[in-house]
Amino acid sequence: MFTALLDTCVLWPSLQRDFLLSLAAEGMYRPAWSSAILEELELHEARKLVQREVDASEAESRAAHLIDRMRQAFDDAEIQGWEGLEGTYRLPDPDDEHVVAAAVVGGAGAIVTHNLKDFPSERLPHHLALLTPAEFALNTVALDPRRALTAVREIAQRSGHRGPRLQVDDILRVLVDRYGLVEAVDLLRSAD
Q1: Does the pLDDT of residue 142 top 90, yes or no?
Q2: With the C-alpha atoms ordered 128, 131, 137, 138, is the resulting torsion angle positive or negative?
Q3: Burial of 127 from C-beta contacts in 10 A (0-12 / 13-18 / 19+)
Q4: pTM for this structure?
Q5: What's residue 57's pLDDT?
Q6: Which pLDDT score is estimated for 33?
Q7: Measured CA distances, 37 to 100, 159, 185 (Å)
Q8: Tens digit of pLDDT for each residue in 144-179?
Q9: 137: Cβ contacts below 8 Å, ≥ 6 apart
């Protein structure tokens, strides 16, 4: 099964995270991340909730719960032993070294990130592709649009516990408007 390392910036937006992880739950790919990515995600998720006027202790609790749920749902996603490779890729931002190191140790075929400039292709191992979430979503949905649509329907079923219940069309609209997943959504709509 294809393994993709998901960078923090890809996991931080809630619906985008739910969509990508739902595709993984459908068995369309294997997600991977480092402990450093999860730590960053937990920090940013708590900050996002505080900005939405959630009490700080509640925000920290909810962010920690998210990370726990991710670890439970994808118990083989957290890559161990990447630390020895950190610093060997000479990336522009040394804080991104853990991303490439975890991708290599985890056998990933791609890093999914918004921060393409932070990962110059000449510094990456040749087997490792660098994809935006839109590119990755399109490639993954194209494998089996019907199964991907099942993932979206499951997101709709789970929605509503902290806000309005979403319909499939609502989710698809947000994936296009907010995250730019136009081509992937076109494939999903054609599968319906």
Answers
A1: yes
A2: negative
A3: exposed
A4: 0.92
A5: 94
A6: 97
A7: 11, 25, 27
A8: 999 999 999 988 888 766 667 888 898 888 889 888
A9: 19, 20, 23, 175, 181, 184
CA 22-105-110 angle, 5° bins:
50
Q: Which two tokens stand for residue 77?
A: 């996603």
Q: Is the pLDDT of residue 192 over 90?
A: no
β-partners of residue 78 are: 33
User: What mean pLDDT comes out for the span 38-60?
Assistant: 94
Domain 3-191, CATH homologous superfamily name and number: 5'-nuclease (3.40.50.1010)
Q: Go through the chain and tell me how many residues it has.
A: 192
Beta bridge partners of 56: none
pLDDT(39) > 90: yes
Q: How many CB atoms lie within 10 A of CB 69?
A: 11
The sheet carrying 129-131 orders its strands as 30-32, 3-6, 110-112, 129-131
Tell me how far apart the alpha carbons of residues 35 and 158 are, in angstroms, rounded to a whole number.
Answer: 26
pLDDT of 187 strictly over 90? no
| The amino acid at 49 | L
The owner of tokens 């081509």 is 183
What is the residue extent of each domain of the chain? 3-191
Contact 141, 9 (CB under 8 A): no
**Helix residue ranges, H only, the chain:** 8-11, 14-25, 35-51, 56-73, 97-105, 133-143, 145-158, 168-177, 182-191
